[in-house]
Amino acid sequence: MLSVIQNPQRIALPIVGSSDLFPVRRVYCVGRNYAAHAREMGADPDREPPFFFMKPADALQIVGSEPTPHAYPPKTGNYHFEVEMVAALASGGSDIPAETALDHVYGYAVGLDMTRRDVQDEAKKMSRPWDTAKAADGSGPIGALHPVSVFGHPARGAITLSVDGEIRQKGDLADMIWSVAEQIAYLSGYFALQPGDLIFTGTPAGVGPVQRGQRMVAAIAGLGEITLDVV
């Protein structure tokens, strides 16, 4: 049986130390998972249940070891950076206990949840979905995966983002309100998680706008950094 159109290319992430690739299925993102960021967004960070949104897998932008051009999207004048650690699942299931949730993780990467903040703010006011704010083409820059078998599970360490050499976001992975294991457990109560799923695990305080011509460097201790030039 032939497809009536050309089959879309499946997004796959490079893996540190390997020529193999990690094919991506779904991309889940948790909102307001660092207390200071929750406060700067006007929310109460005191362990209210987590909430999630999704990006299309083809909104990811694979970033290599060299500076990579990142296109400023249309329909926004307030395009924000949000540095995040990304967890990639090698297996899944439903109702996964938090105690065993990390057994499902293949590896971790540095990522960015780029956001049309003006579009998101308008959607919030009108109680509308966030898709046009969060799912712009290329709005999920992501570096190579670091396998758990080699690098373990990062539970603490600096997570930062700089713009033109100035630190704009700075936090610690230990400051997450909901741990990676808890996020997996919670998500699996709503969705049957599958191999290839990614979870963007939240951003620290300091999110803000970036302009064409500026350089962003996102870094996480133990996972390296990715560099993007906004064009």
UniProtKB/TrEMBL annotation:
EC nos: 3.7.1.2
MF-aspect GO terms: acetylpyruvate hydrolase activity; fumarylacetoacetase activity; metal ion binding
Any one Pfam family match given in the protein's UniProt record, by short name: FAA_hydrolase
Matches recorded under SUPFAM superfamilies: FAH
Keyword annotations of the record: Hydrolase, Metal-binding
Record-linked InterPro entries: Fumarylacetoacetase-like_C (IPR011234), Fumarylacetoacetase_C_sf (IPR036663)
Record bears the keyword Metal-binding: yes
Annotated Gene3D superfamilies: Fumarylacetoacetase-like, C-terminal domain
PANTHER family: ACYLPYRUVASE (PTHR11820), FLUTATHIONE S-TRANSFERASE (PTHR11820:SF90)
Name assigned to this protein: Fumarylacetoacetate (FAA) hydrolase
Species name: Methylobacterium oryzae CBMB20
